Amino acid sequence: MQRLGLDLATPTAGTVRAWLLRLGCFALTRPLPHDTPWVWLIDHTLQIGAVKLLVILGCPLATVPFGERPLCLADVQLVALVPMEESNGTTVAAVLEQTVARTGAPRLIASDNGTDLNAGVALFQQRHPGTAHVHDLAHQAANVLKQRWEKDERWASFLQRLAQTGAQVRQTRVAHLLPPTLRPKARFMNVGPVLRFAGRVLRLLDKPAAGVAVAERYGWLREYRVALADWTCAHEVVQAALGQVRRHGVGRESAAELGAAWAEVAWTPGAWDVAARLRASVRREGAQAAAGERLVGSTEVLESAFGKLKRVEGSYAGDGFTGLVLSLGAMTGTWSEADVCQALAAVPQKKAEGWVKRVLGKSVQWFRRLFVEDTKV
Known about the structure:
alpha/beta, 15 helices
């Protein structure tokens, strides 16, 4: 590593990839304790092609840092990684049942309220009635906002005019006021930047030195001042509730505890309605906890793992799954030097590559290369 002034050889990208696969394969196969109740966080990650990847991260419920901070990647471990061409209640339940061999039946499964996952967990609970099923509050909150705002004509017209204005200012002197883009997927989980941007532009318009160009492009925002205040307050209610649940989980007292989390909210009619719906959701999820027990109410750490996986895959993230999905095992949990040595000793590269070939099979990239070779002129 000459750039760092160290007398060491710099590992190649292929070597680093091999290490990640070996660590991930070890994480996926090493023994996990059965003597303590676990929480499983489950979801599918999608790219292209016919295959979904069902990922299960987990940790002993007793190690969740309730009251201190939200779960992070260091707190959880890779429990299962299963590609699925068909995902329904039966196939999901089968995977969950197979995963019992790693940790025992979990005390809790947390998911995003997907139909196939719900059906699979329900079937699993028939055999394991001691397992609770909590739905991620962020997804529930996004559904609440979607149900309210998609019925609001002002919301649709606001987004339309914002997009039109963005196209108009892109190559002008006020291009610095280009609005953020609302992602088409899970858009109601990502409305914060749009609302904050609109609020800032309104405050700029209220200043005498706003400028003619700004007023010409964004003067229409004044028509949405009241609506924006209502949407922003509702979003603040959601964010405060999410912060509370991410940090403290859900239990029998969680619905009452939301009041303190909302102490700083400037209430509007829309915010009151959103708060009532979220309180009902938290009360329903928390009712599954025993007296004094806390359950994980957020799968945010799983979404974080998916995002990190896409960064590791880089340009390949949109081309179907590769062996790098095993890096989920390397990026979760804590790894001491002794752990790494044990993993590399236990899993030779051939074993890791064998897992990839056996479980993932031929990738989209492999078929693309074959297509190119077969169609060369």
